[in-house]
Amino acid sequence: MASLLTPKRECQCCAESNGVCHGEVVVVTTSQSVEVFVRCGPTIEDGTPREQAARFYECLPRLLERAGAKMSDVVLERVFFRNIEQDFATFQEVRHNAYQEAGVTGEELPGASYINQPPCVASQAFEMQVQAVLPNGDSKVIVESFPEIAPHTAKKIVHIGPHRHLYITNINGARPDGSIPSDFREQSDIMFERAVPELTAHGTTFPHVLRTWCYLNDIDRDYDEFNLSRNAFFARHNVQRLPASTGIRAGLYPPEAQCSFDLYTLLDHQGVEIEVMHTPTLNEADEYGSSFSRGMKVVLPEKTVLYISGTASVDEYGATVHLDDIRKQVERMLLNVQELLRAQNSSFTDLVQVITYLKRSSYLSTFTDVWQQWGLGSLPNSIVEAGVCRPDLLCELEAIAIIPHNGN
């Protein structure tokens, strides 16, 4: 079922007749490009992880084709595993075979994030998110690919019109020789520093980074140390405009990795407005030692993109509210996201990608009930189980909104 949500944004829900496999495809058309966002929860009754992965990659070309895209237009993937150690090699084999069949191999493969955050639907071995981009008409879209920086660490530059968008995925704390230290702080320090030469190679620095996604294998134990590591890195590199960010619990690959992160930045700033997002319902995260902004607004000539950081049941003083009450924490979380969007003349209907982290998958029915009550059922939302940055927080949500500019 398709519905036009804004003049140039279309969302189509995808569901098999058995009601098990589910997902959404969001297509955003601007004067420069067509961007396709796919969320898929592939399941097969009593199916193996291999069968589930194969089902997704069998469906993906058809889903992309509806928007005029193909497998070679895919730029980024994020894969949520139920058991990354057990299923990583199988998933990689299925993925490589699917792209090879489409003529996409080697460094041309999409950049990917692989994280162990079990889908809250118990029958799913994986949850997938995909982003593809292609030109609109005679406009220019070029995807520049690079050899892996390290195993499974990918870098892509997407040229859309006059602007270049840099994505780096799966940056972990491995040493130059590939070994991974056992100490968390050493891993975290190395992890951040590894991004510096990659940014420098393209004429930019970390103060220009707009969005990060930070994954910690034991967030309850290591989040404070992670903040100290990040704060020290930001001080060394004079990062004053804090990026939008998510800090969340995730199992990683290889298993020795205790932390990793992805980043996004814009390499060309001419004709672009960049603004940190605020809302009166939330204080600033750096007031309690976490160096990130609540959101980042990027106004390009053809569209406005809003990067909503990981947002939870926190009040205007930075305190966790509604302790031990998942329903009320979900409602406060959604209120905070709503107000971040509202301050930018936006709303939930502009969202193209959502991830909800529930501390326990048993909260799914309560979350779904509130989500439906808010009228958000058709939005693309990956709901996974993950520990949040405070033990008393039961849920967190991050999102990307895109607002095409009328008349372009």
Q: Mean pLDDT, as a whole number?
A: 94
The largest sheet has its strands arranged as 1-2-3-4-7-5-6
Query: What is the overall number of helices?
Result: 6
| Biggest sheet descriptor | 7 strands, mixed
Helix content class: 10-25%
Radius of gyration, in Å, reads 20 Å
> Low-confidence parts, pLDDT < 50 over ≥5 residues?
1-7
The separation of the N and C termini measures 27 Å
Mind telling me the CATH superfamily name of the domain at 271-408?
RutC-like
Structure notes:
This protein has 408 residues and is α+β, with helices and mostly antiparallel strands. It has a domain at 271-408: 60s Ribosomal Protein L30, Chain: A (2-Layer Sandwich), CATH 3.30.1330. The protein is 24% helix and 34% strand. It has 6 helices and 19 strands. It has helices spanning 49-65, 84-101, 184-200, 219-236, 326-342, 364-373, and strands at 2-6, 9-15, 22-29, 33-41, 74-81, 111-116, 126-135, 141-145, 154-160, 163-172, 209-216, 244-249, 259-266, 273-276, 295-299, 303-311, 351-358, 381-385, 395-404. The strands form 3 sheets. The chain has a 7-stranded mixed sheet, covered by helices on one side. Strands 8-9-10-13-11-12 form a 6-stranded mixed sheet. Helix 1 packs parallel to helix 2 and helix 3 (184-200) packs across helix 4. The radius of gyration is 20 Å and the shape is globular. Residues 1-7 have low confidence and may be disordered.
